[in-house]
Amino acid sequence: MAVMEYIDAIRLAMKEEMQRDESVFVLGEDVGVKGGVFTTTKGLMEQFGEMRVMDTPLSESAIAGVAIGAAMYGMKPIAEMQYSDFMLPATNQIISEAAKIRYRSNNDWSCPVVIRAPIGGGIFGGLYHSQCPESIFVGTPGLKIVAPFSAYDAKGLLKAAVRDPDPVLFFENKKCYKLIKGEVPDDDYVVPIGKANLLREGADITVIGYSQPLHFVMQAAEELEKEEGITAHVLDLRTLQPLDQQAIMDAARQTGKVLIVHEDNKTGGVGAEVAAIIAEHCLYDLDAPIMRLCGPDVPAMPISPPMEKFFMLNKDKVKESMRQLALY
Amino acid sequence: MKEQETMTSKTNRHEQLGLTDGQVLDMYKYMVLARKFDERNLLLQRAGKINFHVSGIGQEACQVAAAFALDREKDYFLPYYRDYGFVMAVGMTPRELMLSAFAKAEDPNSGGRQMPGHFGSKRLRIVTGSSPVTTQVPHAVGIALAAKMQKKDFVTFVTFGEGSSNQGDFHEGCNFAGVHKLPVILMCENNQYAISVPIHKQLSGKVSDRALGYGFPGIRVDGNDALAVYAAVKEARERAIRGEGPTLIESMMYRLSPHSTSDNDLAYRTKEEVEENWKKDGVVRFKNYLIDCGLWDEARDQDLIAQLNLEIKEATESADNAPFPKPEDTLLHVYASDEGGAQAWR
Q1: Where in the numbering of this chain does the Transketolase-like pyrimidine-binding domain appear (chain A) (predicted)?
Q2: What does pTM read for this prediction?
């Protein structure tokens, strides 16, 4: 088993799926000759040619719309949005079209498209290279939405997304690309969409999250156990839609104290839905009010270092919230 | 961009275009079928039998002619909501369309889910469409891209209105298709109105000229001249199959009906203007052409109308009597794996 970076795992998933199935192809801005602005598709054009690793016009709605058309024909496109911040011109194609094609045609047509988009800040990207737009899409039935936090999950979830018969949004975290490394099997595995993953067992508090902030949660959990004997039960949602309700309920009941963590801003975020599920099903199992630790409700993240730092989560912020919840 | 001449001569033009007498008679039958179907839907809506109808009256000649210029066994079609004549000419039956009008379970377009005029049928390669306009243009380009990647010899044919040609998806789709020289034919059915907004408030130039910016030919044809439309689409298809890329066709016509059954068009245009345009009706013009060619006469026309009205009546009764979808089927087909309904995910 090789240790590789999160970004390499994403690339490997695309490579394996393109080798496995000729109908799989990648399209997006700068994905070909340059290999992507983050090098996510580096080397793929050399291997598969410029038709299957296609540099497109700078035109997000066409990238999504053309991919949707090709998917309806029977291809398996992986459309790359260079930054999730630039995905909004394609929102109509994603929400009005991809999400509704199976439903509106009464199961006659389908749209097995994958749309990859990097999310998250902490890279001095300013307002428009840092956002987490998942809450724009969560709550649109017909879409599946995944957001891996590890290299293993990145490969397995992307392969599952490519093979899925429905449209999948794959939110990869750009802060994880190079910083997160992990063991990734060379063999052909998938991580099932719709299943959350228990990262850590504990008895005092439950933390539920997804994507990059989970690394802070895991570090904080270790320190809290060592330093203060507080044990945390940590659940990675992995799939934001459809949410794994059973896993959420089980995790909440495990400790009766729940902290939800994500970088997307608090109001209307995925955490709100997770909290609602817990409130609906587990109210009498709770020993403390549900807590949320999220990005602040400002339009987006400023570039100035102290402001970016203020916006971003970090281990200390997460640890403090976890401690407060444990002490409640 | 060239402006095609309107037909004035009475010489036999269809044979020069490679159309047989039988084919032009078939074309005419589809035009009249679409017209009569449309009129029946307007009546059914007024009678409270169906909820809504968006009319294609005035556009049938162009639609049917375009369909006949395509390969109806192979090509992919992305029609817009007025294209009753088009979808009938590529194989959708009056009963199937009536099932949609009545929102019945057997409706092949959507199982009674979508408004009428939102066509779709995998069997007929009519790609499911939505209501936000012109989103189908990038889809047509994507299917054409698949044709190129898989070296298949079909084209995609997509239609839209002149108002829709202002949408970003039109321009993004055209540009993508131009860059990759994809086998797609884009036909604007320029009917002079986007609901109430007339063409001079939508466009300061010609739709067809927009093709210039995308590096492929744009032509304007008289949409009331079925044979001119046929010739333009046929030539565009030949170009596409030869690998020469897309063609934009702007077909000039007039929306003779109100926008929809919810629209009072005399609030924004005059009766005189509408009446003037009835004189240019492409269906009547095609009928006169067939009469001039000695292929048709008034007696046969009356017989045809009677026969089509009967067919439409049967389709209407059949659809009216067909069952609605089960209420709980509302939950089906959100995802491929939800046979148990959307609740399976909750």
Answers
A1: 4-179
A2: 0.96
